[in-house]
Design a protein that fits this description.
The protein has 354 residues and is an alpha/beta fold. The protein has helices spanning 35-39, 48-61, 91-98, 108-121, 138-141, 156-170, 221-228, 235-242, 248-252, 257-264, 268-291, 309-319, 333-345; strands spanning 4-10, 14-21, 24-32, 71-75, 86-88, 125-128, 179-184, 188-194, 197-201, 298-303, 325-329. Strands 3-2-1-4-6-5 form a six-stranded mixed sheet, sandwiched between helices. Strands 9-8-7-10-11 form a five-stranded mixed sheet, with helices on both faces. Helix 3 (91-98) crosses helix 4. The two termini are 29 Å apart.
Length: 354
């Protein structure tokens, strides 16, 4: 009998939901919230009742009985660093999401909403591969400054999902493959997968690696220190410069990679910025190839920017000498969350406890 799941993926101004029977999507919807609606709440966790009501009302309006679900799955939030896997939303996990131990982010609501709805109908609740998944090796953590260790924050949900998808398609166990997975979206993360773990990854939020549509990536540290103490900028302004207003936004005042490509056809500056992005992503792939000692079975390109033929083809030209390349454009987060719960529900994987 098929397992019916409700998937909840909260974003800053929307809540995406999906209804699945096993891996089959019955329907999905993006429930949008106005700026005024969100502005009423001083903290992310305070939005819980509002978002819950929106979800339940939508299900009711579409004649979907909430009691028909076998499991509720939420997007994992900013928890303490944890290994990859599907986690039961325990009291401890719930407490850390509510207290925002890793910071305020809309994704924290995923597990909170999943647990509350699941408890009301007497079914399990899970989160899957939150952005704080940390499987880095000891050598990968050293930055050169003990007070500034390298940190694992990346697109774990999509990276793990496409890596396992590739393994399934080629009939091999994910744990036996050496893969480099490149997620290219609003942020960029390039991870080295070996032995079923992401042993090194370029921090997609505020760390190292290629710049992206919205983030600066690695910047010259000496110049950054000078900028911080120049008296021209506040801490908030510097952080916004690095996360949000960095990358494409900084150079071209847009975070839309499609627009950047179209402009690059006639605008030399846009072409240089786009080619520099490709250059930096390719460098990151080369670095992760060194992490894997050159033993790379496949390079996987994913995320929204992987829809761009020019970007994909130019990256291929630079890194095809390392390994064959597979492209899975986009990021099907709802399916990835559903699959994570299914693996546990069907006994293919042990549920983990936070």
């Amino acid at each position: 009998m098929a397992i019916k799941s409700l998937i909840i993926n909260p974003g800053s101004t929307s809540t995406k939901i999906g209804v699945f029977e096993d891996e089959k999507l019955l329907f999905d919807e993006t429930l949008r919230h106005t700026t005024e609606e969100i502005a009423r709440f001083d903290k992310i966790v305070s939005q819980k009742n509002f978002r819950k009501e929106v979800i339940l009302n939508f299900l009711k309006e579409n004649d979907i009985d909430v009691k028909s679900f076998d499991v509720i799955v939420g997007r994992g939030g900013l928890l303490k660093p944890i290994p990859s896997g599907t986690y039961a939303v325990t009291d401890k996990l719930l407490e850390d999401l509510k207290n925002a131990v890793g910071g305020e982010h809309a994704s924290n609501l995923g597990g909170i909403l999943a647990r509350e709805i699941a408890d009301e109908i007497g079914v399990p609740s899970y989160i899957v591969d939150p952005v704080v998944v940390d499987e880095m090796g000891q050598l990968a953590r050293l930055s050169g400054v003990p007070e500034l260790p390298r940190v694992s924050i990346f697109h774990a949900l999509n990276q793990k999902a496409v890596a396992k998808r590739y393994a399934k398609e080629v009939g091999k166990r994910y744990e036996l493959l050496n893969l480099i997975v490149v997620h290219m979206g609003g942020g960029v993360s390039v991870g080295a997968h070996t032995g079923g773990k992401v042993v090194d990854v370029f921090n997609a939020l505020s760390g190292d690696g290629a710049f992206s549509p919205e983030r600066a990536g690695a910047v010259p540290p000496g110049a950054l220190v000078d900028l911080c103490f120049s008296g021209k900028y506040s801490v908030k302004e510097i952080k916004k410069m690095l996360i949000g207003n960095g990358g494409f936004n900084a150079y071209l005042n847009t975070n839309d990679a499609r627009e950047v490509y179209q402009r690059s056809l006639t605008d030399e500056k846009a072409k240089v910025v786009l080619d520099a992005f490709i250059y930096q992503v390719s460098k990151d792939i080369g670095a992760q190839a060194a992490v894997l000692s050159g033993n790379v079975d496949q390079i996987i390109l994913t995320g929204g920017i992987a829809y761009g033929e020019y970007v994909v083809e130019e990256i291929k030209k630079r890194v095809k000498f390392i390994a064959p390349i597979t492209v899975y454009p986009g990021e099907d987060e709802l399916l990835a969350l559903a699959e994570g719960a299914l693996r546990v529900m069907k006994g293919d994987e042990e549920v983990k406890e936070y």
